[in-house]
Amino acid sequence: MSVEPFNRLVKLAARAFYDDITTKGDNQPKTGRSDNRGIAVVVLDALTRRQWVKEEDLAKALKLHSKQLRRTLRFFEEEKLVTRDHRRETAKGAKIFSAAVAATVDGQPTTKEGEEKIKLHTHSYCCLDYAQIYDVVRYRLHRMKKKLKDELDNKNTVQEYICPNCGKRYTALDALRLVSMDDEYFHCESCNGELVAESDKLASQEGGDGDDNARRRRREKLKDMLQKMEVQLKPLIDQLSRVKDLPVPEFGTLQAWEVRASAAGRAANGDSSNDPSRSSHGLGYGGTTLPFVGDTKVEVDFSGAEGKGENIKSENESSSLKVLPPWMIKEGMNLTKEQRGEVKQESRMDDSSPAVEFSDDKKSTVENDDKKNIQDEYVKAYYAALIKKQQELDEAAKKQDELSNTHALNGISGMTSNRQVGMKSKRDEDDGDDDVEWEEAPVAGNANENYKVDLNVQVDASGEDEDDIDWEEG
Amino acid sequence: MFFHIVLERNMQLHPRHFGRNLRENLVSKLMKDVEGTCSGRHGFVVAITGIENIGKGLIRDGTGFVTFPVKYQCVVFRPFKGEILEAVVTMVNKMGFFAEAGPVQIFVSNHLIPDDMEFQIGDMPNYTTSDGSVKIQKDSEVRLKIIGTRVDATEIFCIGTIKDDFLGVINDPSAG
Ligand SMILES: [Zn+2]
């Protein structure tokens, strides 16, 4: 999508039509100082170098008074060249925009917002509407040409008729009174003479009286104007035809553009961090792509796990059903308890890990790597759950706070903390509760992401904490 | 263009219409008097759609007639310059053709008929293109643009053109 041809179109149109536009009211004295003709062209040119821009920033960049700029922009909004957007926003909201700008301009990583004031200000933004500009310019040219041609062809003019006998003049509006039933002609009301259409008279008496001369001069002038128009606007018309089949640059609405621009900026930086604070303020504006990042990752893991499940089946006959790690279980999945890993988890893991070792030696390593990864992840998830419980009991780790806002983690910690040694009688009941919580877990927006990050961080510690937990007995 | 407006009129009612049917008599007389008339200001009154209010009657000295001020809602049709209308051709002659759009008469002079249409004299005078594919004659339906109106107190007359994009014959009776 190249903007350049369209920018050229804008620049040509600006110079052709808006060169002598002054936005001052007519009542103000037109002194040399207040004459701001040409501003319109400057503003349009500046806009071709930007996408969405805050009007304050634009005014600063052009060293214009913001009132003057606003007047010019309002004019262009009426002319349908510019789209504008106004919104009341906090200082934070303004930062989203500047972050988006930063992303488009030089791809700098967006900075995290600090504390923001709750004070709201109305900010205006503007942007060229290229698709509409293309139409507006074409329409303008069409109207100009049509007006001249219509006048030249006497179109839309009321036909006049003259009585050759008494010289009385009539117009087409009198037609109803003039029509006669006897023949095909109009007749004079006073002398019943046959009326003659005036244009015919003009044609028959070329170079007649002064009235006709004036009319002919007018026609000459119109023809001249039409010709001049075609010559002088040729660059513009050429540019229009050049642009005709090109895709029009489209920036979308301010919000859509912000989201896209900042997302693109982040992608360019490889900055995939997905901190919840950012996504939550993104949600405040209704559209953000961030929650989907988490979902996609789940999908990828899931497909990997399926491949692994087959491996287990072939190599480890004793377990016909694969065990799904808790972080893979989604709402709506129809699983047995075994699959949920709620029965004999420990023993299964013990079974399968030697199998991995075994196959590692003898079979193709690709499959096993895959399998091992999945199993590792399972182990990680498992231990993470244990640690979670541990942490809650100890109330030591501060990270807990950050994580506890997701259902998934609450689920884990709730479950593990209830399963104390000697409380086995309660287990079934707990399982029921747990099921509900587990299934809901992945639904929560970016919970997956957080969860996984957490897993990686905490796995190291898993070794020491195991002994507390009664699962091994089961 | 059509408008739904409220108009007022003083109705004179003969004493023989008084009685319990006074109101109905008043309304039916109003319809007879007003529908189909034309005022330069509001255009043609197409139909009365409702009575807003009937004021107190005033007995005229000497005659016994009573005058009621009646406010009524009605649909009016008022043609405007620049408006596009569909009309039926009523008469074709060398100077152009006349057409009707409901109550409005429109004249299209021959210089506002496309240049490639020529007048053909005969039993059914008409304007026809050289290849004969398009013909304007009596009862043809045309779409035209109003380029001028003459508004008198009781009459509206229009002149139109078919010399523009998408104007001209829309239904040819001879072809059907
Ligand atoms: Zn005469």
From TrEMBL, chain B:
<dbReference type="GO" id="GO:0045948">
    <property type="term" value="P:positive regulation of translational initiation"/>
</dbReference>
<dbReference type="InterPro" id="IPR045113">
    <property type="entry name" value="Rpb7-like"/>
</dbReference>
<protein>
    <recommendedName>
        <fullName>DNA-directed RNA polymerase subunit</fullName>
    </recommendedName>
</protein>
<comment type="function">
    <text>DNA-dependent RNA polymerase which catalyzes the transcription of DNA into RNA using the four ribonucleoside triphosphates as substrates.</text>
</comment>
<dbReference type="GO" id="GO:0000932">
    <property type="term" value="C:P-body"/>
</dbReference>
<keyword id="KW-0804">Transcription</keyword>
<dbReference type="InterPro" id="IPR005576">
    <property type="entry name" value="Rpb7-like_N"/>
</dbReference>
<dbReference type="InterPro" id="IPR003029">
    <property type="entry name" value="S1_domain"/>
</dbReference>
<dbReference type="GO" id="GO:0005665">
    <property type="term" value="C:RNA polymerase II, core complex"/>
</dbReference>
<feature type="domain" description="RNA polymerase Rpb7-like N-terminal">
    <location>
        <begin position="8"/>
        <end position="64"/>
    </location>
</feature>
<dbReference type="GO" id="GO:0060213">
    <property type="term" value="P:positive regulation of nuclear-transcribed mRNA poly(A) tail shortening"/>
</dbReference>
<keyword id="KW-0539">Nucleus</keyword>
<dbReference type="GO" id="GO:0006367">
    <property type="term" value="P:transcription initiation at RNA polymerase II promoter"/>
</dbReference>
<dbReference type="GO" id="GO:0003727">
    <property type="term" value="F:single-stranded RNA binding"/>
</dbReference>
<keyword id="KW-0240">DNA-directed RNA polymerase</keyword>
<dbReference type="GO" id="GO:0003697">
    <property type="term" value="F:single-stranded DNA binding"/>
</dbReference>
<dbReference type="Pfam" id="PF03876">
    <property type="entry name" value="SHS2_Rpb7-N"/>
</dbReference>
<comment type="similarity">
    <text>Belongs to the eukaryotic RPB7/RPC8 RNA polymerase subunit family.</text>
</comment>
<dbReference type="Pfam" id="PF00575">
    <property type="entry name" value="S1"/>
</dbReference>
<feature type="domain" description="S1 motif">
    <location>
        <begin position="79"/>
        <end position="156"/>
    </location>
</feature>
<dbReference type="GO" id="GO:0031369">
    <property type="term" value="F:translation initiation factor binding"/>
</dbReference>
<dbReference type="InterPro" id="IPR012340">
    <property type="entry name" value="NA-bd_OB-fold"/>
</dbReference>
<dbReference type="InterPro" id="IPR036898">
    <property type="entry name" value="RNA_pol_Rpb7-like_N_sf"/>
</dbReference>
